[in-house]
Design a protein that fits this description.
With 421 residues, the protein is α/β, with parallel strands linked by helices. 30% of the residues lie in helices and 24% in strands. The longest helix is centred in the last third of the chain and has 13 residues.
Length: 421
């Protein structure tokens, strides 16, 4: 049973269930607020596994009438999942209240059908951070060690355009607050009774009217034509190469991707279009400006970093996947530096045959399984007389490495855990 975060009274059926209850389970504040009648056994909810065992003991008595109290909508990142897994959906009657996310957006005066909701309660904060960086409207359900202070500290240098709306004591009419702060201000404060943090890009708060809730759908096309990006002297990863590189990188919501030697940023931008947070590292100043312009043209957030790899990489957070598009003498060192930091995959595109053994060695010596292909393509090109020829593109080697420890573990945890799309 959800005790509505917005302070709404219980409906008639919920009051009927409370009146008939012989056992009530929940947090102390929920039990105190429920106005239970005398004689009801109260079980204060602590660690979940022992509480479920105790609940099973009580349910062994056919006369028992058990009510579980929770905040907001218990089916929304709440206790319903654990109860359904343990006792089966047919054993449950769910009376949802107003979720904390709905209450926070209502207090902010904003629609939230286009928001991404991510739970940081008992989960790795980096997923929430990456979602906040990649999407203009994100709600983060907080937890111990994963509140506005920690979120602000992670975002302060990585999401300059974001503001945080910190919702405190939702459901308490006298004390509930919605405080607007920058990530830096959030990181400097101590917060109490925080339910949810809204992370917003205020320039893109209102998306067009839509029919599907959640973040915008995955792109209908990828491996876009080179003409979709402003670039210099054909310094762009060709779409045939980009298509396979994206397949090996596997960018998704909650991921963080590096595009090193980014040129015009085409790979980083395509990763961002799939919902990943992305950073494009480029050593030329005009290239950095071109990346920013291309990202804006495609409506995605890509952080452009001006500097030369591998030195500049030390200032970045660890990535899930890395694409390396630059070359030169430093390429083996760059690959090693990226391989040390990547959590899943490193993909390298190169034109020089002489570099292939060096890159393979750098990946395998860093604990990656390595594979690759030589991509040779010919595109249709018109000739006078309304005929067509094949124009060969320059061949490109694409090598990729996957961490062997993740392969052995089945690729590790999904970044989708704790994310509502």
């Amino acid at each position: 049973m959800g005790m509505g975060a917005g302070g709404a009274p219980l409906d008639a059926r919920a009051r009927e269930l409370l009146a008939a209850a012989t056992v009530a389970v929940g947090g102390k504040r929920h039990l105190d607020a429920a106005h239970l009648h005398d004689g009801v056994e109260r079980i204060v909810l602590g660690p979940l596994a022992p509480a479920l065992d105790l609940l099973a003991e009580r349910l062994a008595d056919e006369r028992a009438r058990v009510v579980v109290l929770a905040s907001g909508d218990p089916g929304f990142f709440g206790i319903v999942r654990a109860l359904a897994e343990r006792f089966g959906p047919d054993a449950l009657e769910i009376r949802p209240g107003v979720s904390s996310v709905a209450a926070a957006f209502a207090k902010a005066g904003l629609p939230w059908d286009d928001a991404v909701v991510v739970s940081a309660h008992g989960r790795d904060l980096r997923t929430a951070v990456n979602v906040c960086r990649a999407h203009p409207k994100t709600a983060v359900l907080t937890g111990p060690g994963a509140g506005p202070r920690e979120l602000g500290a992670e975002l302060v240098h990585r999401a300059e355009r974001r503001v945080l709306l910190v919702a405190s004591a939702l459901g308490d009419p006298e004390h509930e607050r919605l405080k607007r702060v920058t990530p830096a201000e959030a990181a400097e404060r101590v917060w109490d009774a925080v339910s949810v943090v809204l992370c917003l890009d205020e320039e893109r708060l209102l998306s067009p009217v839509r029919t599907v809730a959640g973040p915008r759908p995955a792109p209908d096309r990828w491996a876009l034509d080179e003409g979709a990006f402003a670039h210099r002297d054909s310094m762009i990863t060709k779409f045939e190469v980009r298509a396979l590189a994206l397949a090996r990188l596997g960018p998704r919501t909650g991921d963080f991707v590096w595009d090193v030697g980014a040129g015009c940023g085409s790979v980083a931008i395509e990763c961002a279009r799939f919902g990943a947070a992305a950073v494009a590292v480029e050593k030329t100043a005009d290239g950095v400006e071109r990346i920013r312009a291309n990202a804006a043209a495609h409506g995605v957030d890509v952080r452009a970093v001006h500097g030369a790899a591998p030195t500049v990489l030390s200032h970045l957070a660890d990535p899930d996947a890395v694409f390396i598009g630059g070359g030169g003498r430093e390429l083996p060192a760059i690959v090693r530096a990226c391989a040390r930091r990547a959590r899943r995959t490193v993909v390298v595109a190169l034109a020089a045959l002489d570099r292939v053994p060096q890159v393979r060695a750098a990946l395998t010596e860093s604990g990656y399984t390595c594979d690759g292909v030589l991509l040779q393509s010919s595109r249709l090109a018109p000739l006078p007389g309304d005929v067509t020829r094949l124009a060969a593109a320059n061949p490109v080697f694409l090598l990729w490495g996957d961490r062997t420890d993740l392969l052995a573990a089945g690729n590790g945890p999904s970044p989708y855990e704790g994310v509502l799309k």
